[in-house]
Amino acid sequence: MPLFKKNKRIFYSEHAFLYLASGVILFLISCAIFPQWIAPYAPTKMFSDAIMQAPSASHFLGTDYFGRDIFSLIVYGSRTSLFIGFLSVFLAALLGMLIGSISGYIGGIVDLLFMRVIDILMTIPGMLLALAFAAALGPSLMNIILAITISALPGYARLMRGQIISLKDRNYVIASKSIGVSSIVVFFRHILPNAYSPLLVMATNGLGTSILLGAGLSFLGLGIVQEIPDWGTLLSQGRGYLSAAWWIATFPGLAITLFVLSANILGDSFRDFLDPKKKIR
């Protein structure tokens, strides 16, 4: 009995950060889906008698230079920021899986052409590549998502290609082909189910990076011009008031940091869960 209690304490201590990170992500997703239930005020409501007010009981994260409640702005701004992050990761993983699968399974000239394009994209840092595409396409929601997707795509394509190449010469794949099973059936039944797990782990870890890239583009003025600012725009708007009203930029920055950190913790835990070498505890 004492041993069971000891193991139970170890289990909870080891997973405390995972539970905390999951709670943070679920709360921020709830803010994005149901902002009107969580935010105490409308994001456009201005309190003329509380302009640049420090954190207080009525505005516990303070107000900005228009008298808007900072917490309400962060809650409503989470919708755009999380939408950019989740959709760009989904598209990058999907396109990367498609390109990597075709390149690794077919091989030959197709593999050569696809991988040379991927190599060119990988020589450019992700932030710089996203910045170039966002500047060329112009500030809009879909353009930012496209820019982040293109910058993240090479990593997913490379990972998936390596997985396919390592699996397509396995004995069970060769045996399936030897009895007349078509290449398409072999791919979808025997190769793809064993290849996508690392891609899911990479996508989970890449979620925080995508949020950070989206916030960075908004911070540099390449974000979405809209009535309700996202986290990066809030951070950019508050940088000029750091000496007079530090809370305007600090709390949106903390929201970005918390989400990125929580996404990374969740990704690491997901990787450990899918690792066959890890012992079940």
Automatic annotation (TrEMBL):
The chain crosses the membrane at residues 16-38, 82-106, 113-135, 141-160, 172-192, 198-225, 245-266. It is a multi-pass membrane protein. One of its GO terms (cellular component) is plasma membrane. The keyword rRNA processing does not apply. Residues 78-267 form the ABC transmembrane type-1 domain. It is found in: Cell membrane. Pfam families: BPD_transp_1. GO terms for biological process: transmembrane transport. Keywords: Cell membrane, Membrane, Transmembrane, Transmembrane helix, Transport. Belongs to the binding-protein-dependent transport system permease family. PANTHER family: D,D-DIPEPTIDE TRANSPORT SYSTEM PERMEASE PROTEIN DDPC-RELATED, OLIGOPEPTIDE TRANSPORT SYSTEM PERMEASE PROTEIN APPC. This is D-ala-D-ala transporter subunit. It comes from Niallia nealsonii.
